[in-house]
Hints:
The chain has 377 residues and is an alpha+beta fold.
Amino acid sequence: MPAPTKLSEDKGEFFRDINAARYPSYPLQPAVNAILKTNEDFACNEVDIFTCASAMGNLLRFVRGVDKEFRIIVEVIGSTAFFLRRENSPIETIPNVRGYGHTFPEASTTWEHGVKGSETHQRMVQYTFSGLTCVVRVEVDGYLSNLPLRRDQHVAGGDTGVDEQLISALQGSAVTPHKPQGAKRGLSIQSGGQEVPQSALFDLKTRSFRRKDTDILDEELPRLWVRQIPTFILGFHEYGVFNDVRVQYVREDVERWEKANEDSLRRFASLLHTLIDFAIGHPDGRFEVVHEEGKSAIDLRDLDQDVGHVLPEELKDRWVTGSTAAAKSINSDRKLSAEASDSSEKKTDLLISWESSSEEDFTACSSTCGYCGHCGK
Length: 377
């Protein structure tokens, strides 16, 4: 196999939220439209949370004590709570981009016929957590067509055991500076291609060869848990030359992480239930979740009237069709918390802390029961 080509560092501008940049009016609308077009009989009323992996990741980081600021709009439509990430601007870019986190994926993956020229691949993942049916929009780096993979497939140098489809694409690749495109008028929906199983998806990261002795996978497991991606590809480079690419099947690692972080996941479950209940009890059915760096709690704030809704009216009506009453609790056995109800009537900012954030007790729950909220009762 020829020696890998030396890649150029990332150049250009990259949007912080590609979905908001491309469709700022309703960033979640393309995902909803795609689901309804793919499956006209999709049971909208059975979905408790509709969100993106970024919003879920921010909330999970918060309960794990990671101090990173974020803003999320929560809005109830029918029996579903939509969680929409909110940046300072839809076209906000990531400052000081360095490394090969964009050029390596661009050089080592290809867009199939019919989707060439695309800027991102978004996938909807559905799973149940703490009794909540969650639909999560996930950006996926690619998929492997030669599964099943071995548990931990590691190749260094020119060993031909590495996934050749991935590495051979690096040979002779030319990568041009990235020029992101902003929003276009209207929303066009096209059908095509074929379904790719979740088991074939991979997440791809790059690191300097100086970090070979660092447990990179351990740092990424919370992300992989939220996204439910089973394969992790890690490319180590030496000044842009990727001689060490590791393909790891990480489903068991994710499961071990889940069991080892049961305390954090109990708090995560409690937070999700609290935010949903607060939205249901709020007169407007929506509010903003804000975490500021340096604070140990999150604020729940009323939204200004000029802040748009998460979906256009006609799509909201379509989503509600067949659902139970919009004011009904998303789970019949879950009651509206008194704290959320009282605070929403006052129309003031609410500071949430773990001491008083929820009526449900998750302290005795674990992954075995799915963080049901009833084990401690």
